[in-house]
Amino acid sequence: MDTAGKRILMAKTGLDGHWRGPTVVAKALRDAGFEVIMIGMARPEEMVQASVDEDVDLVGLNIGGHIDVAVRAINMVRESRPEVPIFVGGVVPPHAKRKLEALGVEVYPPGSQLPDIVAAARRLTGLA
Amino acid sequence: MNAKNNKDRVWKSASGLPLQKFYSEDDIPQEQRQRLASDPGMAPFHRGAHPGGYRTKPWRIFQLSGFGKPEDENERIRFLLEQGETGFIMEHDRNTGDHCYNVDHPDVVARREDVGLTGAVMQSVRDIDICMKDLPLETSFGHAGGAVVQHAPFALAGYWTVARHRGIDLARLPGTGQSDFFLTYLGCVTKQQIPTAAGLRFNADIMEFCDKHLPRWVPVSIAGYNGADTGLNAYQELGALFANSVEYLDEIKRRKTMPLENAARACSGVNFRASMDLFEEASKMRAARLMWQQLLERRYGITNPKVANLRIHCVTAGSRMTYQQPLNNIVRGTVMALAAALGGVQSMGVSGYDEALSIPSEHAHQMSVRIQQILQEETNIEAVTDPLGGSFYVETLTAELVERAWEFFDEIQEQGGFLATLDSGWLHERAAENQSEDFRQQESGEQVIIGVTDHKDDISPFEVDGFMGVDDAYDVALERLHEVRRTRYEAGASRALKELETVCRDGSNIMPAMMDALEAEVTLGEIGDIYRSVFGDWATPIQT
Amino acid sequence: MHEQLKQQLEHAQAGDRGALARLISVLESGGSDAAILERCLRARHGGGYTVGITGAPGAGKSTLVSALLGEVLAEPGRVALLAVDPSSPLSRGALLGDRVRMQPHAGSPDVFIRSMASRGHLGGLAMATRSARRLLEACGWPLTLIETVGVGQVELDVASATDTVVVVLNPGWGDEVQANKAGLMEVADIFVINKADKAGLDATRRDLEGALASLPPERRPQVLETIATEGKGAAALWQAIRDHRAAITASGELEQRRLAQVRSELKGMMDALLANQVQRLFEGQDAHARVLAVSEGSLDIATASDQMLDLLYDQAAGRV
Fold it and tell me: Which residues form the signal peptide (chain B) (predicted)?
């Protein structure tokens, strides 16, 4: 199915500037036909505003650091856009991964392969 | 990769150099063959910095460490020193440090639980004092933190101020900061940063200040590591690193404020990455020494062997530490450390086996030290200098890396120089190309990572849960920030801050005013506010 | 469907940003819903003003726009931004990164930022940019900035979609100024030499002013200097935009420009509609028969095309 017009917001929850992972993922999503709106390091309220104004179909968060920061961001985005699915990637220790999965968020830790991430984006935006 | 595929496989080094089945004497380029006559410790130094090698001085075990409150970090550093670490790195919290924010900055408050995860929060000289409690400043090699360029003047001035309070003569104080362009503008592009031109000024200021007051201090440490771990391959890492050196040296040459030879010496302690291609990485360290000697002689006419003799700190590739089956990373760390040791580096840090999961746990840290101790004490590797010297393969590889690295160096000059390639994003593009290629090769099966692309095992019996630090770092930091503001001599602090702003604007050396500011207990965020108003923000060339 | 769209429009006009954002998506996806929505926008001509910002990639447009947003907000004012980036011609995906630079303002309720992928549309705008601007105006946004795709040369489309056009250049671009002289003069109301702290500023200013010398003084665009990363010159730019607006309003030129904008958009829409109709015609039997006839030599191509034009009119008439 056609990905044309499906929009994904990509944000980083932390203030850490490693861009290697998120950039490779963003390019893979673009190459799969998605429109990827990148906002970089953002506070939860900035993610909320962007997810609303940009009318996105999926939110991808690059997380690292403390799990509570990610959980706060996830909860705030959900509050204003409850219908939009969220997936996350980044340095996520196993205990944090379990916690996020319990919240219904898909987690892609380091070593995840791009085709799997692209497939998830297609599935989560209702394309597959 | 199973055996039957090997028939059609194109064998290449990690940086893409084509590899032969075996090498003979004829394969070594003529120029390199002539260099076989030079012993270790002789120019052009590719065979080693010193003829005695590790017999004379074992490599320094130098681990990045830091988390929590300053007292937590102090405790971890002392633990590592007890375990046999021979230098120490004082990592500052990166949320606050990299951005020069205090913890009450809205961008930090929004991520308060992250505070203290990557280093201790040090907002004033009081915090730095706590972190440095009882550390052997004069007898071990200290890293004051300040890896990011805009943070370095604060971190260095803080360390030096505490040392001075303890009655240490700065002229005798050993150590380093980092103030690295690769980290700041390529590998870890933070939310806010002074522009590269202002960064160059800071680093030249630090070099001048050390030349006058801290002759034993290594003022800047260019970290090709951060370029390599972002995607630059071995020869790109080499070429870009020396393109960076040239920016510093040309700036000092333009200023005419210190002898160029001293400036070259100030730049002669560098940082490379060691990754998994054992022989290429060992050859890279040899190539680096050779290139530094060539650069100084050809471009600046400097031949003094004390200066032309590159000293290398090497860190094993954090990006090659896998999330899956993390104990495999102990093996990877060992191989990478071996590559660095075979290349004759002076100092080493091994990434924690839990690098892809979290900051290093105490156990992971201990293993990083143990790996190096086992290599040093049990393998007899220290006995002979440049053990790979004369190998047909390694000599050829060394020469090829040198050749390609100078080509890459020239490409950077054609782009307008190292700073220009950071401003335009050209260097980021080179790194990104390699990142994408890596992913492609992993998908196609050309690149195998055990536990990730092959031999996957979801039910690993050796699961590691990652280390989460302490949970009161933010609260304590906030309390201490208020405390400093309440109890410092306010008129002195505001006078020092004003003076710092004047200096930032008028272009004179920033360090004396920074020393005064730290002495007057000016806080990190106040200094950052001045930077932001004077220098503005770097226009990041990448989208994250 | 009609009712639902109308309701959403009412919400958007009452200040619901989510509704506004969804309606922009409707316009972007085109088709019948977009046409229905456009019909609702007809009678709601607001007093909005539109400023276009164009220039080559890397000129610093986004950073400049961010600084400009700061000036507008400080007034205080409200401002919407449509930031257009190219879609990949192969995958049709896009990386839209302009918001990164807008971060200081992205949280303000007085700013609405929308990233748009060009979706194959050439000329620096996305197909739905004009429609989105109209929607923003209908929803009470008094000022819309449109940041165009930077594709290496000045994009002429922006002039037919905006009231004031700002062209962003950099020092050292003397050659570009010479090469694009005609285009620059045609579109620019204000020139900005951004990154004014870089070498080559004077030469670029000289080249630019030389190129503009032939214009009568009252039509000569202002040339400003900015260092957007430090916010320098943003206030002067905002002032220049306001001056330009006042001048063309007083002289009656704004009215002429608006007419030209409508003419250009209407003609563009007709072109697209006609192309669509022609395409449909060629998918049918009538076209096929004539193609065969011309190829056999039983019909000449001029007559064939006249006949096809008649068929096209019939087809259009039948549709009404």
Answer: none
